[in-house]
Hints:
The complex is a heteropentamer of chains A (620), B (359), C (314), D (321) and E (349). With 359 residues, chain B is an alpha/beta fold. Helices cover 28% and strands 21% of the residues of chain B.
Amino acid sequence: MTANRRRHPMLTKRRTAAGVSMVGVALLLAAACSGGGTKSTTTGASGPANRAANVNASGSPTKGGTLKLIGNADVDHLDTAAAYYTTTSTLMRSFTRQLFAYPASTNTTTANTPAADVATQVPTKSNGGISSDGKTYTIHIRQGVKWDTSPARQVTASDFVLGFKRLCNPTQNSVGAPGYYEGVIAGMDTYCKGFAKVPATVGAFKSYINGNQISGIQATDASTLKFTLVKPAGDFLNILALTFSSAAPTEYLNYLPDSADFRQHTVSDGPYSIAKYVPNQSYMLDRNPAWSQSADPIRHQYPDHIQVTLGPDENGVQQQIQAGTQDLQWDTTVPTTDVPKLKSTNDARLGIYPNFDTNPFLTFNMQSPNNGGALKKVAVRQAIAYAIDKVALGQIYGGPTLNTPLNQVVPPGNVGYQKYSMYQTPGNRGDAAKCKTMLKDAGYPNGLTLKDVYRTSGKHPAVYQSVQADLAKCGITVKGTPSAASDYYGKYLSDPTAARSGVWDISEPGWVPDWFGNNARAIIEPLFDGRNYGPGSTNWGDYNNAAVNADIDKALAADTPAAAAPYVHSADLQIMKDAAFVPFQTQSTPLFRSTRVHNAIESPFTAAYDITQVWLNPSS
Amino acid sequence: MIEDTPQPPAGTRPADDDLVRATGVVKYFPIRRGIIFKHEIGQVRAVDGVDLTVRRGETLGLVGETGCGKSTLARCLTRLYPLTAGQVVFDGTDISTLNRGQLRPFRRDVQMIFQDPYGSLNPRRRVGSIIGDPFAIHGVADGAERKRKVQELMELVGLNPEHYNRFPADFSGGQRQRIGVARALALRPKLIVCDEPVSALDVSIQAQIINLLESLQDDFGLTYVFIAHDLSVVEHVSDRVGVMYLGRLVELAEVDELYRHPHHPYTVALLSAAGTPDPNKARKRERILLTGDVPSPIDPPSGCRFHPRCPKARDRCSVDDPVLMPGTDRRPGAEPTGDGHVTACHYPVLPGEVLAGRT
Amino acid sequence: MSTTELFESAEVPTIDTSGTLGRSPWQLAWARLRRDRVALVCGAFIVLLGLVAAFAGPLSKLIGWSPTQQDRINGLTPDGLPAPPSVHHLLGTDNLGRDVLVRVIYGTRVSLAVGVAAAVAAVLIGVIVGLIAGYFGPAVDAIVSRLMDVVLSFPFLLFAIALVSVVGPSELVEIGVIAFFSWAAVGRIVRGQTLSIREKEYIEAARSLGASDRRIMFVDVLPNLVAPVLVYTTLLIPVSIVFEATLSYLGVGIIPPTPSWGNMISDAQDVYQQAWWFLLFPGIALIATTLAFNLLGDSVRDALDPRTERLFAK
Amino acid sequence: MVRFLIRRLLTGVLVVWLISVIVFAIFFIAPHNVAQLLLGKFAAQNQQLVQTVTKQLGLDQPIWVQYAHFLNRLFHGDLGYSYYSHEPVTSLIKAALPITASLAIGAAIIWVVAGVLIGVLSATRPRSFTDRLATLFALIGLSFPTFVLGLLLLYFFFYQLHLAGVTFFPGGGYVPLTQNPGQWAQHLILPWITLAVASMAVYVRLTRGQMLEVLGEDYVRTARSKGLRPLRVTYRHGLRAALVPIVTQFGIDVATLLGGAIVTEQVFGLNGLGRMSVQAVTNQDEPVIIAVVLLAAVFVVVANIVVDLLYAVLDPRVRLS
Amino acid sequence: MALLEVRDLTVEFPTTDGLVKAVRGVSFEVDSGETLGIVGESGSGKTVCTLSLIGLAGGGRRGGQALFRGQDLLTMSADELRAVRGAGIAAIFQDPLSSLHPLYRVGWQIVEMIRSHEDVSKAVARKRAIDLLGLVGIPQPARRVDDYPHQFSGGMRQRAMIAMALALNPDLVIADEPTTALDATVQAQVIDLMVRLQKEFHSGLIMITHDLGVVADIADRVLVMYAGKAVETAELDDVFYHPHHPYTKGLLESIPGASGTRGKLRPIPGSPPSLIRLPSGCSFHPRCRYVMDRCLTDEPPLMDVGAAHRSACWLPATLSGLAEGTEAQRMKVAEAARSEDTPVAEGES
């Protein structure tokens, strides 16, 4: 099923880069770039992950033409209050604006650092934007940022307040939003709790929103916003750079959030506006006449139109762009099988960009009663960690060009990353003999029989079969339980009942942190905080270690990423020591563009080209 | 009911000499339409009030054209069809109201021989098993005994008993009809209803089967109801002949009487229409050409059903439905003739009378 | 009447059966089949398939690879692409470095098993239901026919995916799904045949002898259904095999690592441009098998009823 | 005739209703939590939201209540909203149907014309080389899984030809007929062929069989005895009589396709009903699944009625009795 | 020269079970205004030997010569033959229901016939069709011309077939068992009609039938066929009153009523042979009462046994007729011709 060919087949669809302006993080990012083993610098000059290689910035930007994107499936939501997929972010870049945004840059550090967008400047303690206790943020709105209403109207502070208010509307179209804001912004929690009781009608929503305020978000005047936090948050600017944090025009109060009606009436303050949207079929974006370049330091408005066609899978998309009938990928990547040839012919249209995630990995159901509760034993899990052939797994995802074996919890590009390897095997190819010995020592000379629940889509079956083959060499019989992608988490991994009854023993999920950098909140906490275990938990294996929990608390409380890093690393070491999971690899994203596309700059945030930077060859 | 006092050729016969007595037999077939809920939109009046007696040991011929109801009548007599109305008494038992289980003993006594030597034998079964069916169904004989009996039967009807294991396809039309005869004979029935048993056969083969049937009748004292549309065949095999038209019995008589002195205009026309394999007779013969075709049995004509085509029809015929009456004298108080020749006609054809429409 | 080439109805000559006397219709059909070169070739091929399926184990030992064994030395390029045919792997390898030849051999087992089991199950249900509908008169017929209408009105592929996504895939589920959507077609054919057989004089003959309904259904009707049903079965087997392939393509097929031609082809669709062998060989196996069954089905039909042309079952 | 139509419609409604019950049962008996699915990982953080959403969707009600609601909405022409895209299902279908219809009808025309012509050709020369070739062609078409055929067509006719500079065949996508009929056809040629090949095979064999049967009929001999031209005998007398079962099959096949040519749409990235329904199944988007299944069933039922009416047009014996 | 002269016609059909020799060297001729009756049992080749002349016997390998108005039908091109069909030689078939196209109106079918051979307007052709229907005795032809075949009764259908056959005033009409499917009373009507129309149109008529009664009614001359061969041909009366061939004699004696006695019929024993594996010599010998040595080995040709009377039998020419005396003589001849040790041919098994 083509839906499986989405780039990020993981639970988490959205991430933000933790580009806090900190040297430490920048260094980590630099390390990430050398993941392929090739020497590299942040500015990048060569190697597979050379961010600048593919830009095609030669010539001067030209206006005109229609940029054609092609891909598989529609966005999840068109409402900024709910949109969560990276693909959606790609689109939202063109018609929504936030206070801060990631600038397009071939420099990874720059690209991952929030810059002022609608805000006039990045607030710091030194410029007075952030109070000394780190709990108050004062932000000014840029003049000339306008809605494409008729007549065009200046975007105001209260538009942003409305944006935040809409986040916790009690419809299914409000996913994602509250979690990032409730614990951080004062009064958000109360506001959302109150909102939850409001019946789902336009009128009721309108009157609740108009009649209730979030104490921590105030428009002190038309162009000034004041945020009050519950506690200091080093990643608050990253949160404000999420599309959730976009401004919302009052017109949006006339529709239920992200309803079909809403989707036909989006209002734009970006360079483009949605002229025509046919669900599941196509988008046509036109220039937004109310937008002016002078009021937007981030985006451009080169092509006349941006067209999105939905339908084909990644192979179809690749063929079309290669044949020149389409320009850019919408939600797919270059099929990994196509990469070697394109690379060997030095095809200029190919670009390979590193990801900063861990995907997939092996998780253990530590509650499983199967095999006499063998998976509860650290030694058994360690034995399995030795058995895994990470190179073979890498081959499924295109080999060394596209991924690098990973041996710790925190992948490169995230706070607390330090390269080490606790269960190193020769060439990362796995060590069946060692596994066997350890297993025997742990009291299982005749091996084990494990149930592996896997998704039937994409490369998941291959991953499962690879693990199965590795463990077979160690005397462990792996039996597969196929699951539809939609059932995978709800029915198996996130259901404690399933875990306790031993429906599964091992599985190969993935995790993309919602942002990079200071993201203890986005990796360690959701995956390994044992206190969070329960229905829907992402601590799938019910790993619970007091030391790790303590480290998590400390990392979350840390004022700066630099302060958080040691705690995160300490937790990382402990988790690996307990062999709570087995990391496989970090991956890179291969992208493709047509020859007429110029200034194709990849955004690490969306792992796709930024469509507001592209200009088209005028002779095409 | 037929006045049945006359003398049969071989002396007097006792009252229980009637093997079958059918009274007022009616068989309508509903015409149904509809997808879920079928509803009746009409009826085919295949047999519409027939009285008939079959005497023990005789061959009763039934002739008539397509759709006259002769085959339906035969299936009513054997209770393959339930009757719409009327009564059939077989060998003293009223069989018209019996259910399937109660009919089983009766099934042993009455057998049928069918028209189509291809359709009446299951092509996927061996001959031995087909002929052995009556034994199997009635649990009469098993295993080796059944085989022996079947082979005896095969020999009896002129089939090689060694062909026990062959399939119907291995036999010619005539041989197949012999298989059908053997099957009918298996339980030594009292009555065999032959439904056009030779119509599908070539002349030379037809003669073989007729001879076989006749000799079996002599050997086993069988009673036949013999249905055919070929008048010469019926003439050859029958003791008495009934003529049917549109669901009715219109004339019944001893065979020679009927062929020599037909009373009903329809019988006359039918006899005159029959081909004769004799050029001189053919040249001399005068044919009565009836106009039109047999009307639909769904909506039969009023009064005498033959009246629209009858050269002798008068006003009365379209109103009054004639019943079977002996002789040709229709005046009140006329002396009944004693030869059992009955006709359902208001104006029977008198000896020497010339019917209109001759060529 | 369907014979066009030979004779008009009245003139079909009596075929002398002196050379074939006493042979059952099956034996006759067998004799005709043996004279049919296409049938012989197809039959031989299918027998070969059966043997390959039966001896998949020894064969794979002979070749030296197990069907799930991943050759990570010679079987994959560093980039994870399958290896082309070579001395190590006669027909190349698949996306996980497994031997294509061995997997095609093992795939025979699954594809045949699914095809045959699904076809047989569908035919069994179809025959029983069709027989009941056709034999027991208009009231029963109306109800049963409606039931078959319901099944035939389902968008079956969609429903198959939905069903599998709900109950989870397995060989048994797959067989069940295919059978479930195939039986109604068989049922219709059987019903039609039964309706026409019911009107045959030999059925009337059996009734006149006092035979019970059960006896008539099983002794008189059923044997006459064997020929069309047999033919339909041979045509249903390849349909089921292709169906299995399609389900695999849609991600609801046989559970890996068990190989079936369907899931091999489905896996191969991602790399067919780089590894033609991975698509070609299971593809050839699939097409050759369906072709063989189809052609054999035609021949069987001809043999069972030499006067019937090779009609395609509806 | 009117009574007949009404009765057919009633049975049709019955069939569709039965199907709706079955589909409903399957999806609601299966244990899964739609709200949890929709809310993703936030379900864990906010069980209250899960409950709110569950209540909103009416999923906390007993099945029969949900079914009654569903029926009630159905009677008002409302198929509900997609859980997933929040679009009204009717508008999703409205967008997808023209694509599927274009695909199905175009392919149907190709296969019926080609299939019938080849079938006739091979029936008029039974056992000839032409006949065997047609049979073989038909069988290969039948044996070819649609997705393989589609992939290969795309690869050779779109990709390789494009690289060779021939840009006639687009690589997928859909241009509405109303927008540009030429491009509409151009975009659909490969999908049409893909979809047509398998069915064409069926029609070749069906036509051949029917024609062989009909050409053996007495009335065809009569036509020959009248000294008519062979083409007239074959088509005017033969094919005309052979058409009835072909039309039956055709009606049902087209109707079945209208329910979604799943594989072909998948391969060519056409967002028709088939793809929509597959996505709906993946996402467990019940309102969409039920709507598509019901729609597909309605098509089949309607086709059955149309076919019955066509009988009357094609066969005076039916018309006049 | 006769209207149709058939010389030594052979027709063979290759089948999967072997070569079917349906017609083996049959010769006959028909003149204008003359009726030839061809008699034989199922499979005797009577239909094939006539319909194959105009290419209606479904292919098969044909040999010999068939001169129609001096032109050989067997070597004509397809187009020439098509022009002969319908216009020169028309055919009437056994089953009128299946022989008329069920989906077209009766009138349309006649009009099609006319317009495929003559360049006339639809209106004119339709007028002619109505006239023809009236001629064959269809009541209200102007109304019934637009009926479909299923709206006609059996007799009317056959009348419509006759009307169609006569539409182009053909020189020769081949009637293949035209009355077999009809009831006796209707049969009489149709035969009457055919006789009348033949006189009117003065065409040649070949009447194919297994019913000797029909032949007696209509034929001038008779050809008796057995196992693909003509075994006897003669004037009508000679065949019925002075048959020479034992098969002809057997046929006549098999008919109930013909022999005039109410005793046992005298059937021909056995069944017709397979056309794939024919008996050696005279193919009738296994069923022949008078079989002689020679019959087992030598195939008798058609020989003159009287004036315009030919028979394919080794019995002396003088032994014609049905009388008991002739029978006795035949037995004697046969007895004498048999050698002692030759087993009597197998009868019915």
